[in-house]
Write a structure and sequence with these properties.
Blueprint lengths: L7 H13 L3 H14 L4 H13 L3 H14 L4 H13 L3 H13 L6 H13 L3 H14 L4 H13 L3 H14 L4 H13 L3 H8 L11 H13 L10 H10 L5 H26 L2 H10 L6 E5 L4 E4 L1 H11 L8 H16 L8 H10 L3 E3 L2
Length: about 375
């Protein structure tokens, strides 16, 4: 039941707290209750927009942001939210117009807003446009390590590795405890084959700083090759434990259902083969028209090449990754997709091997030779 003693600002504050806790459903309920009492409260409409956006309800999010802009055409948070939503619909020019309107209204000094816009553009691979907003943020807070780091990540995506390295070092001078920047720099140096420098930075991180396996595997590899640490050295235990924590856990129910589905599929295949055997002539025609599977060649950033079908190539990558070979291809692709997103900001699909490899190539993580 609505609480008439709450102001619209209080409804907004409570919903904001729920949103920050990840309780999007509860936040939306709170906002709806508030709008029932204060139907012209712009902030509540903006809150609805962001709650809908967090729930991937893009059409409803767009409607909420547009309603808030009817009430206040110059609301900066509504413009930013609308821009993010338009990007989800692929309407990039319209999104840029909304974002640039924020600058026209004089909100360049709102660093958090500049970062929000820059990250939204970065996620949609509009890297050059993202850089413009990150640079605006740096002008406002040149001593903010997080802001400086965002410029470095964007430099890397634009192909300026040397510039990214220098900018990351500057961010770490501002804040030596900025683990995200240190891990990124360590991986960047590793890719540039500056292994001792990479080890220097990766060694200064803690297991809980890592949210993908790549940096951990590289740190362990460098410890073994440069510090002569053996595979069974106790010092590696905390890193191996973190890798286990980051490895997706297969739900027992899902595993059982998948096994049932596999068995049913096998039975169906046997029945289909039995039916085909009744039609010898037709089977011969089908056999004549059957094509050999198309083979491909993929080259990783380390120069290693894999040949075969898309599935065989992903399997070879998994086996060569140093991780557990008993992981399914899907689990491997999901882990690599998270690693790729951490490095490039590109969302890599894992629905099938071909989509995974082609998206990885687009992100610059490998090359498809044929």
């Amino acid at each position: 039941m609505p609480s008439p003693f709450l102001s619209s600002e209080e409804y907004d504050e409570r919903a904001h707290e729920l949103y920050n806790d990840g309780s999007y459903d509860e936040a939306l309920t709170m906002l709806r209750e508030g709008l029932g009492l204060y139907p012209n409260a712009v902030e509540l409409y903006v809150g609805v927009g962001y709650a809908r956006l967090a729930r991937d309800e893009f059409a409803w999010a767009r409607k909420a942001f547009e309603e808030s802009l009817v009430l206040d055409p110059e609301h900066e948070d509504a413009l930013a939210g609308l821009g993010e939503t338009l990007l989800r619909f692929g309407q990039k020019p319209q999104a840029l117009k909304a974002f640039n309107r924020i600058l026209e209204l004089g909100y360049a000094d709102d660093t958090e807003l500049m970062l929000q816009v820059g990250r939204a553009l970065f996620r949609e691979e509009m890297v050059a446009a993202a850089m413009e907003f990150f640079e605006v943020a740096v002008q406002q807070e040149p001593e903010n390590a997080e802001v400086v780091s965002m410029v470095a990540y964007t430099q890397h995506r634009l192909g300026d590795d040397a510039g990214a390295e220098e900018t990351l070092k500057r961010a770490l001078q501002l804040d030596p405890d900025h683990s995200e920047a240190r891990i990124y720099l360590g991986n960047l140096l590793y890719d540039r084959e500056q292994f001792e420098a990479a080890l220097f930075h990766l060694e200064r991180t803690k297991p809980e700083d890592h949210w993908d396996e790549l940096g951990i595997w590289r740190l362990m590899e460098l410890k073994k090759s440069h510090l002569r640490i053996k595979d069974d050295d106790p010092s590696l235990g905390i890193w191996e434990e973190r890798i286990v924590e980051l490895t997706p856990v297969v739900d027992a129910l899902e595993e059982m259902l998948a096994e049932i589905e596999t068995r049913a599929s096998r039975r169906a295949q046997k029945q289909a083969r039995a039916q085909l055997e009744l039609f010898g002539a037709l089977l011969a025609d089908l056999s004549d028209s059957k094509k050999a599977p198309e083979l491909h060649r993929v080259e990783g950033r380390n120069g290693q090449r894999c040949d075969g079908t898309w599935e065989e190539i992903v399997g070879a990558m998994r086996d060569a990754s140093g991780g557990a070979k008993d992981r399914s291809l899907e689990e491997f692709m999901q882990a690599e997709a998270r690693r790729g997103f951490a490095l490039t900001g590109v969302l890599i699909p894992t629905r099938d091997a071909e989509s995974f490899l082609r998206a990885s190539a687009d992100a610059g993580l490998l090359r498809i030779l044929h």
